[in-house]
Amino acid sequence: MTLSGAAQNTDANSVEAEAGALTDGFHLVIDALKLNDINTIYGVPGIPITDFGRMAQAEGMRVISFRHEQHAGNAAAIAGYLTQKPGICLTVSAPGFLNGLTALANATTNCFPMILISGSSEREIVDLQQGDYEEMDQLAIAKPLCKAAFRVLHAEDIGIAVARAIRAAVSGRPGGVYLDLPAKLFGQTMDAVAGAKSLVKVIDPAPRQLPAPESVARALDVLKGAKRPLIILGKGAAYAQCDDDIRALVEQSGIPYLPMSMAKGLLPDDHPQSAGAARSLVLKESDVVMLIGARLNWLLSHGKGKSWGAPGTKQFIQIDIEPREMDSNVEIAAPLVGDIGSCVAALLDGLGGAWQAPPAEWTGAISEKKEVNLARMAPKLQNNNVPMDFHGALGALRTIVKQRPDAILVNEGANTLDFARSIIDMYQPRKRLDVGTWGIMGIGMGAAVAAAVETGKPVLAVEGDSAFGFSGMEVETICRYKLPVCIVVFNNNGIYRGTDTNPTGGPDVATTVFVKDARYDMMMQAFGGVGVHVTSPDELTRAVNEAMDSGKPTLVNAVIDENAGTESGRIGNLNPQSVVSKT
Question: What one-character-per-residue DSSP string does 40-87 give?
């Protein structure tokens, strides 16, 4: 008998195997993934999954090896967001598994479909706590942090386990799934024909969930009664990939819309109905708000408070596939439960010819506010100050993104993120990737790698120097795979700014201060990429355009005035400075 992969020839309905051959756990996992059109793995090699990566590559899968599991997990999560198929992160046991957990939990929170696959110690040793290599009850640890968690003990169960993981990751509200594969499983063998028959091609893994007709009618009644309606688009709307229907709903209704950061580009940010430049006005003054794939969490002040105007002056319509999301912070007058595509299509059908656009008084007030705010901002974005401030630097990048709407923007940091969200306009859907619901730092390089691998498009990663530090070593990964990624590090010598001092006067620098005048560009040069040091918006423009034209891995060290930063908006509220007097 020969040992071979069970799936030497696959299609949607069958898997053929050589008669008399054996297959093993390694090949069954690989074949199960390939059978379900999953052909890319992000991970870090090591015991006991090193051979798995080698075999997957030999079987034609693309295996992207990172320097740290958290960043491989972030890449897998973004791959899931971009493709609507679960991104796969492969890690070693115990510490490697734990490194991947942050990404798994973040994927679940952000509703990104992802499967974390980790090798693990044998159950009998773990349960008796006998001290195996990297012994840990990984399944128990993972369960609270993801949608579902499964352990596979027998080779014949691999196919059904992978199928369940895929369905759990993408069905309903998407999220993270953990798949625990003990080391002994990989070496198990079975008849290849039987192994092929044990694999499962998942049919309709994310079925449509149609909204109830009475729910659609109720939502339309509330919407038709509005004098100052507003649509808020969330990243769930971008994930749904029903772009044409969402645009049709916005334009046919005439309702102003406000995109959350990763929903920017569903309609171009310069669209006449965009209320992004009048955010404060529309949140406070609107009387009916329709949420499409957006949650009333901290990013929207939980739907209450001063930013939303007087209590009881608003009605909310919410489209979400998860019924428990309704009434999570405020009363939802018209819950519309179903998948976004079906709900939006139903609303479009219900608009009909009798629909009346919002009053001109409302849309006119928004347009006037936008014009005032944009006019006030324009001179700040056109400055060529040396050293640069955030407005001048982001103004330069804003122009580049407008000229290259097909490029993907990755963005993270404190001031770098806060300012870029409002300054850099997007023109196509799913072209902006950022820190998402949790606002965590360190997603940058993983997201940049996945965006380049999954789409083949050029990537512009705009990073604060603090945020870059979380995943900066992955520039080697970007160089190794020769990915078309241009990283711009906004370097102001610290977190928020580089001017803080040690209050004791002691020899240690302040906790928020980094090495002065660091040269991040030289990191990229060390790995064979292009490194550029710039000090003005004009220099930044030239460097980024050259990088995007060349497609070569590039890092631009952009010197920002260390006095320019402030403690970022929401973070400042969470970290108030206390005033203590000593007597």
Answer: EEEE---TTTHHHHHHHHHTT-EEEE-SSHHHHHHHHHHHHHHHSS-E
Which residues are bridge partners to 114 per DSSP? 87, 176
Same domain as 143, residue 256: no
Confidence at residue 16, expressed as pLDDT on a 0 to 100 scale: 55
Torsion sign, CA atoms 56, 59, 65, 71: negative
Provide the pairing of β-strand 15-16 with 9-10.
antiparallel
The Cβ of residue 577 has, within 10 Å, a number of other Cβ atoms equal to 7
CA–CA distance, 78 with 99 (Å, rounded to integer) = 17
Instruction: Say if residue 402 is in the same domain as residue 545.
Output: yes
Residues 321 and 254 in one domain: yes
CA torsion 324→76→165→130, rounded to 10°? -110
By residue range, what is the domain housing residue 261? 213-367
How many Cα atoms within 13 Å fall on the side-chain side of residue 163?
14
| Cα dihedral across residues 146, 152, 158, 159: positive or negative | negative
Q: Which of 312, 335, 308, 303 is nearest to 322 (CA)?
A: 335
* Distance (Å, whole) CA 239 – CA 383: 36
Of the listed ranges 46-55, 161-170, 171-180, 388-397, the one predicted with least confidence: 46-55
Amino acid identity for residue 534 in this structure: V
Tokens standing for residue 207 = 């079925």
Q: Does 86 score more than 80 pLDDT?
A: yes
φ/ψ bin of 407: left (φ > 0), alpha (ψ from -120 to 50), beta (otherwise): beta
Query: Residue 523 is encoded by which pair of tokens?
Result: 């990191």
Which position has the token pair 């008796």?
128
245 found inside a domain:
yes
Percent pLDDT > 90 in the chain is 88
Where are the extended beta strands (E) located within 57-103? 62-65, 87-91
**Look-up of token digits 């859907």:** 429
Compute the distance between CA of residue 414 and CA of residue 462 in angstroms, rounded to an integer.
11
Is 203 within the bounds of a domain?
Answer: no
**Dihedral-angle region of residue 333 (phi above 0 means left; psi in -120 to 50 means alpha; beta otherwise):** alpha
Q: Are 36 and 157 contained in the same domain?
A: yes
CB 373 within 8 A of CB 277: yes
List, for residues 132-145, the tens digit of each pLDDT value: 777 789 999 999 99
Q: What is the pLDDT of residues 17-33, one digit of tens each?
A: 566 799 999 999 999 99
3-class SS of residue 554: strand
Say yes or no to pLDDT of 557 above 80: yes
Q: Taking the CB of residue 380, how many other CB atoms lie within 10 A of it? A: 15
Read off the pLDDT band of 546 (50, 70, 90): very high
**What is the DSSP pairing of strand 189-191 with strand 22-24?**
antiparallel
Asked whether residue 408 is assigned to any structural domain, the reply reads yes
CATH number at residue 492: 3.40.50.970
Q: Is residue 449 situated within a structural domain?
A: yes
Number of domains forming the structure of the chain: 3
In the structure encoding, which two tokens stand for residue 334, read together?
A: 């018209």
